[in-house]
Every structure is written in C-alpha cells, then in structure tokens.
C-alpha cells in the first residue's frame, strides 16, 4: 500500500513539474504577444466556465472513493454502474454549461466586466468556444476519477502531461504567428477534447469489464454517491469562492488585465498549494481501500505520521520560494512586477499555516467523512468573497489577495476544533508532530539563511536561480532526513533500500 502511494505521488509530481515548466514558458510569451488583456480574456473565459464546477456536487471525489472501495471488494458490476452513472451525469452538466454560456453571451452578460471595446467581440467568440469545450471537459472528469479510483495515477498523469504539452506548445506557436486570439484560446484548451477520447480508450484497456452502457446508469447509484459527496460539494463551492471569485472580482471591479497580474503574483502560492495537494491526493483512494478492509491501524498511521511527512515535504518548498521570490519574478516576467514581491512572500509564508492540515483532510474524506470539512471549506469561501470585496475598494489587487489569506486564517483553527476529535486524535500530539517536531526546526534553519537574502536577490540568471534552488533543496531535505525523520521509519527505509539494491545504504 505504501509503495503504491509513493509511486502515485511521484507520478503526480512529475506531472506538476511538467505543468510548471509549461506555465513558466507560456505565460510571459502569451502576455508579450497577445497583451495583458488578451491573456486575461483567455484566463477569464476558463474561470467563468469554471464557476459551473459547483454543479459537480462532489461526484468526482465520491466516484474515486467508491471505485476504490468496490474494486477492493471485487464488485465489478457496482464499479461499472458508478462510472457510467457519473459519466452520464457529467455529460448532462456539460450541456447545462454550454447552454448557460451561450445565453450569457447572447444577452451581453460580458458587459458586466471591464473588457475594452476593441476586444469585446473577440471575447464573445472565446466564451462561446469555452462553452463548447465543456461538452468534453465535464465527462472527462468521470474518467479521471475512475483512473484515480483504480490508482492508475501514472497512466492518468501521462495522458494529462502529453495533452498539456501539445496544447501549450500549439498555443505558443500560434501566438508567435500573430494568429487571432480565438485560435490561440482553442489551442490552449485543445487537450480537453483530445483527452476525452484518449482516456476513454485507455480506461477500457485497464478495466476490461467496463464500457459505457446506458443500461448501467442508475438513480440509486447516483444517490449512493451523492449521499457521500454532497458535503464535498461544499468544498468545491469553496474553491470557486476562494480563487475563481477573486478573478471575478478583479474583472468586474478592477479590470480583466488585472487577472494576468493576479496569476503572476499568486503563482508561487498556488505552486505550493499544488505541491501539497498532490502529495495528499494519492492518499484518499488508498485510505478508502484500507477502510474497506477494516485495517484501522494503517488509517491511524496515515492520520499522524502521514501528516508529519506531508509537512516535511512542502515546508522546505515554502522556505525556498520565500527567499527566491524576487529573482524568480524578475527573471520570469520582468522588473515591472517586482513591486508585488512583498505580497508574493506574504502569500508564500501563509501556506505554512494553510497547508499544514491538507493531508489530514484527505484521510478524513477517505474514511467516509465529508460533512465537517465541507462546512469549514464553505465558511472559508464565503469569508473570502466578503473580505476580498471589502478590501479591493481600498487596496485593489493586493486587497483581493489579502482577503483570501485572511479567510484561510479564520478557517484553519476549525480543523483542530471539529475534525481531530472525530479521528480520536489528541490535539496536543498532532500539534507536536506537525509544528514542534517538523515546522519549527525547518523554520529555524530558514532564519539562519536570512543573512544571505541579499545575495539571493542579486541572482541574475536562470542557471544561477536553479543552482541555488537545488542547493537549498538538498540542504533543507537533508536536514529534515537527519534531524526530523522518525528513527524507526528511517531504519525501515534504509532496510528496504538495502534489500532492494543488495547493498548497504
């Protein structure tokens, strides 16, 4: 089980590395060739369509959980019904999204946003295309959930990675050729169509018993999934309120161009969140499978030590991103964005607090509990909208980002109050493992690096930035292994490596 989690997590990180590199290349190229507003329109079209993710109802995570659970029980007919019911549901949602976007465009709903007259007709065409793409993007969610349920993360991530590389490369090529913005947008999202067909074919190979058949679509199956996922739906609504609402607020109260700046300022913040989330995401189906086999000891291990090592994974990234934020922003998009470095650093440091319980939340969901995490998430999302709307009037773009951080600060303590008791876990013990034994030693080492911050800021090449990044990464992870890693687990790791490679490690 542990090897499967490690393999799936590694696969997630390889994909994320590919996506990071693609974004690093694509964002400055697209901004330079289509302008801040043009790039903002491309982003905002996906954001507006993304608002319909509230219609997901949490089915995607419920699908993953129940596919993992019933596969472990060898109930293949139930697995088939779960996937096909979800696939049909998502196709229906895709039709709703398409119809809604068409109505918004036809009735000039885009007038609500600060889009220049020069780009208004182009924006209408792009939003229409975004609606059509929903017909492929939504059913694809079901197939991706099925791949996660059978824990074939490497196959899933390979398809996503290849599809994204193709789409971004094509979009960059078209942008360099001064192609109309509509074609660039379509190229940028071409993987949504390609992966729909490719993933379907691959899923039939990995699940030879499965094909889409209307006869296996069942209301009872949907009710079973929704009984679990209904509360997760609140978490997905919260994601919309926490992040997509930020861009909605900027588009309506500042400008569509501000979305491009927001994307740059929040890049490292979201990078850390994704690093954290990818490490935790492979755990949920594994916990569901373990719970189905009544292996409570393994679940308890996930809760305490999994959370500790999850923090051990992302905290060094936070420290490095804090110190290298200024040279990274300058090298990536130019000096004009360095005025936001302080905001980048504040948001990066905040992830120490916000992501500390991310792993715990996935374990909690995997054992079949979702109500309280959903309520906490929706509280955070509503708080973010309120604070962002309030602060944007005073601080503009900075106010929107600060609102998101403050909302997160309010929600994190609720995990200790409401979640830990359900897991029969001592709050003091959990706090000790996460903060006293893990975060504080790493932060102390990070403070020792502060005298070097001036040298870090003077880095003037990508080669130098990557070299410093790697040195700091080795230093922080080496420190973690020597001084923070549990001795018993270290011994098991050494023994496992020695056995595998036939020599002493």
Strand content: under 5%
Number of helices in the DSSP assignment: 20
Multimer state: single chain
For the termini, the CA-CA separation is: 23 Å
Which spans have pLDDT < 50 for at least 5 consecutive residues?
none
Count of separate structural domains: 2
- Rg (CA only): 23 Å
One letter per element, helices H and strands E, the order comes to HHHHHHHHHHHHHHHHHHHH
User: What's the count of strands?
Assistant: 0
The helix-and-strand class reads mainly alpha
Mean pLDDT: 85
What characteristic shape results from the CA principal axes?
globular
Largest sheet: none
Give the helix level as a range of percent.
over 70%
Give a written overview of the molecule.
Keywords: Cell membrane, Membrane, Transmembrane, Transmembrane helix. It is found in: Cell membrane. It is a multi-pass membrane protein. Pfam families: Polysacc_synt. InterPro entries: Poly_Biosynth_Transport, Polysacc_synth. With about 500 residues, the chain is mainly alpha-helical. The protein has 2 domains: about 10-255, no CATH class; about 265-370 and about 425-505. It is about 85% helix and about 0% strand. It is built from 20 helices and no strands. The protein has helices at about 1-50, 60-70, 75-105, 115-150, 155-175, 180-190, 190-205, 220-255, 255-265, 265-280, 285-290, 295-335, 340-355, 360-365, 370-395, 395-420, 425-450, 455, 460-485, 485-500. The longest helix has about 50 residues, at about 1-50. The protein is globular, with a radius of gyration of 23 Å. The two termini are about 25 Å apart. About 45% of the residues are buried. The model has no long low-confidence stretch (mean pLDDT about 85).
